[in-house]
Design a protein that fits this description.
With about 280 residues, the chain is an alpha+beta fold. It has 9 helices and 14 strands. The longest helix is centred in the first third of the chain and has 15 residues. It is globular, with a radius of gyration of 19 Å.
């Protein structure tokens, strides 16, 4: 599984590196106060306590790298949907808004949970592997015309990883023969279908300042459950986010990713009116 993760991410980075007309483009540094990357990001977590320190996007949710533009008709957007059961991708003309190429594939990523039938979990490496397969159906000429990524996917879910796993070199060096990927593995993806947070447990959690009612399967509820029942497991990681956030962090080499307000709201404990996480939660 580790080798599969390495192969998949290196392929994606190589396929999507921003080389246009022989000009190298350096990715801007992430800003946790702005929506720097596409519909994604993450939530930095203190695994030693039940207090979550999260950074959310506050404006646009699409990252458009500054790249050399050969001509206006050659610019394509690669759209990626990491769904619960399948991956769907499309190459869309940025001018006409019409799809040029599409691909879809069932992920078959469900795995057995250690907590039994209440757990609903997926293998994130398998999801990225299927994404690899979908993108492989597009020819290199079309991929070379990609100037923007749009990433969406299943909401509410949560997975964990270490920041050093995703913070690897600037994009201009991706795909080089000298690049060696760190083989630290992420956790499983606990999806929105998860049923581990029972009504009694949810009632014991701090009240949320949010327009949405907290429910089982929501990211923050799942993290609270893990803080109570799997604290040692939590201590292995320092980042949490959705599968989309993880993908963007990998592709962009982020140490402090961001999360869109839509995804943040789906996790719970997020106020969409002032675009901020609830503070002082313990």
């Amino acid at each position: 599984m580790t080798d599969e993760l390495v192969t998949t991410i290196e392929f994606l980075r190589s396929a999507l590196n921003p080389f246009h007309g022989g000009r190298k483009v350096k990715m801007p540094e992430p800003d946790v106060n702005k929506a720097t990357f596409s519909i994604s990001g993450t939530c930095n977590m203190n695994p030693g306590s039940r207090l979550l320190n999260c950074a959310a996007a506050t404006s646009s949710t699409t990252h458009k790298p500054t790249a050399y533009k050969k001509d206006s008709t050659s610019r394509l957007v690669l759209s990626i949907d990491l769904g619960t059961t399948s991956i769907k991708i499309a190459l869309v003309d940025s001018i006409t808004k019409k799809p040029l190429k599409t691909a879809a594939q069932v992920t078959k990523a469900d795995i057995e949970s250690q907590i039994g039938l209440d757990g609903c979990e997926q293998n994130p490496v398998q999801i990225l592997h299927v994404l690899h397969q979908c993108i492989s159906t597009f020819d290199k000429e079309h991929l070379s015309r990609v100037v923007c990524l749009a990433i969406t996917g299943q909401m509410h879910g949560v997975m964990l990883w270490r920041s050093e796993e995703t913070s690897k070199k600037e994009l201009s060096s991706f795909g080089s023969s000298s690049h060696k990927w760190n083989k630290q593995e992420p956790s499983q993806l606990i999806t929105w279908r998860d049923q581990r947070c029972k009504t009694k447990f949810l009632a014991c959690l701090p009240p949320a300042d949010s327009h949405l009612r907290l429910a089982t399967g929501h990211g923050c509820a799942t993290l609270f459950w893990m803080a109570r029942h799997q604290r040692d497991f939590l201590k292995r990681f320092d980042c949490a986010g959705t599968i989309m956030d993880y993908l963007v962090s990998l592709l962009c080499g982020l140490t402090h990713p961001v999360m869109s307000p839509q995804i943040a709201a789906s996790w719970g404990y997020f106020n969409t009116e002032n675009v901020s996480w609830n503070s002082g939660i313990s």
